[in-house]
Specification:
Blueprint (H helix, E strand, L loop, with lengths): L3 E7 L3 H12 L4 E4 L13 E2 L3 H8 L2 H5 L4 E9 L5 E12 L2 H14 L3 E3 L2 E9 L2 E8 L2 E12 L8 E3 L11 H13 E2 L3 E10 L5 H7 E7 L2 E7 L5 E8 L10 H10 L2 H8 L1 E12 L3 E2 L25 H20 L5 H31 L7 H7 L1 H10 L6
Parallel strand pairs: 1-2, 1-9, 2-6, 4-13
Antiparallel strand pairs: 3-5, 4-5, 7-8, 8-9, 10-16, 11-17, 12-15, 12-16, 13-14, 14-15
Bound molecules: flavin-adenine dinucleotide.
């Protein structure tokens, strides 16, 4: 007999694994699907904001994260294009942890709670038929149909973008429902030629740079993009950058060449990178990166994480928003599966909750990105931050999800 799962979660990044863990621990027969195989390196600054930790605690995931020996980050330094620097304390300790370790550990937690995880499985379409969803999947060249009473899409914000070491585009396109999802997110996203890259490094000389990099997140702004640096586990350093693809000469299309190109545009960044030794096996790229204009929480099925919206990466709060949406949506899914809520009520209430919580940080995040990336406007910021440090901290805070 074919299994009918209570819930299928489509995408096993931070949002999907957190939702699967939560729903499985409530006793629902849960399957978590991802087209990739784990562990895998993923483009991300790997900075877990102080705000995300309360959500992690409520999700029962904080202990697992603390057990991965993350670096503790207490300060931020913003290196502007004109040479100005703004240094600010963070509102609490952030954690630096690689997505290679983090996502795999969330999978272990989801599995321990009873979820089934299937890797290397691409979801092609989801269709509601007679009160059940029929999902068409492709795995190892075979097509199959999986049935579930509820589905949650946690497939990230890449749309048809690639997530591969060389940043090149995939040749396959996704079918029907997933293609219409791309059109849906396109309406609310800033169409861009941005490419995201990341790579780990180790320190050539462990002190005093190691102390500085391990306890601060550094952001470097320059024409055509910005780069973030912070420590992760085992004394390693993660460097992630968002770059305008048109500004990158075609000979510089490997991740390390793109990061070197970024370093050429900011003297302080160049100095920092020269003191580090790259670990090329950890490279990843994603393109295009679309920054959202407004959150879209439902597209035929409920969306969580980056599938709802992408906040500018410099805010370092994307994972926090992904975890919070997983928490919210799982609660509605639980009530729907219990028969306490109709699908229509789930859609309406969840959409309202996401608009209420996500619109403000998204708006402020885009404003902060605009200010810091403008060579002209950013000139006055270091002096303003010295004169009104509370206002500067308030601005960073406004880009963050308010902890409930
Ligand atoms: C350059 C950059 C730097 C960033 N830095 C930070 C930071 O420092 N801190 C922070 O909090 N956030 C940061 N972010 C944002 C953060 O990475 C995202 O918010 C977060 O990864 C969202 O998690 P998610 O689970 O929604 O999506 P993802 O982590 O993208 O997971 C989606 C999963 O869905 C799978 N999938 C997609 N389509 C299908 C399909 N059809 N079938 C099956 N599986 C599918 C994918 O393989 C993937 O594993 C950064 C982003 C960028 C681009």
């Amino acid at each position: 007999m074919t299994t009918i799962y209570d819930v299928a979660v489509l995408g096993a990044g931070v949002a999907g694994s957190a939702a699967a863990k939560l729903l499985a621990s409530k006793g629902w027969n849960t399957v978590l699907l991802d087209r990739q195989r784990f562990p895998r390196h993923k483009v991300c600054g790997e900075f877990l904001s102080p705000e995300s930790q309360e959500t992690l605690a409520r999700l029962g995931l904080l202990k697992a994260v603390q057990g991965l020996s993350p670096s503790l980050i207490t300060r931020t330094s913003l290196y502007l294009e004109n040479g100005g620097v703004i240094r600010l304390p963070l509102p609490g300790a952030a954690l630096g942890i690689s997505r290679y370790r983090l996502d795999a550990s969330f999978h272990q937690e989801a599995e321990a709670a009873g979820a089934r995880i299937r890797e290397g499985v691409t979801v092609l379409s989801a269709e509601l038929q007679d009160g059940h969803y029929s999902l068409t999947l492709r795995s190892e060249g075979q097509t199959e149909v999986l049935r579930a009473r509820a589905v949650i899409a946690a497939w990230g914000g890449a749309g048809q973008a690639s997530e591969r070491p060389d940043g090149s585009r995939p040749s396959r396109s996704r079918k029907s429902d997933l293609t219409s999802r791309d059109r849906g997110s396109g309406r609310s996203a800033q169409v861009s030629g941005l490419v995201g890259v990341k790579m780990h490094y180790r320190m050539a000389d462990p002190t005093p740079l190691s102390v500085q990099v391990n306890s601060a997140v550094e952001l470097y702004f320059f024409q055509g993009g910005y780069t973030g640096i912070n420590g992760v586990e085992d004394g390693k350093v993660n460097i992630a950058a968002l770059l305008d693809r048109d500004d990158i000469p075609s000979k510089h299309r490997s991740v390390s060449a793109m990061l070197e190109e970024a370093a050429r545009r900011h003297p302080s960044l160049r100095e920092r990178i020269e003191a580090l030794i790259p670990l090329p096996d950890t490279a990843a790229a994603v393109s295009p990166v679309r920054i959202s204009m407004r959150p879209v929480a439902w597209s035929g099925i409920p969306l969580i994480g980056d599938a709802i919206c992408r906040i500018p990466p410099l805010c370092g709060d994307g994972m926090s928003m992904a975890l919070r949406s997983a928490e919210l949506c799982s609660d509605y899914a639980d009530r729907y599966l219990r028969g306490e809520l109709s699908l229509g009520d789930w859609e309406r209430e969840y959409k309202e909750a996401i608009m209420r919580e996500f619109s403000r940080p998204l708006r402020w995040g885009r404003f902060a990105e605009f200010l810091l990336s403008s060579a002209f406007l950013s000139r006055a910021l270091p002096a303003l931050a010295r004169l009104a440090p509370r206002a500067a901290r308030g601005m960073i805070q406004a880009t963050r999800l308010r902890v409930r």
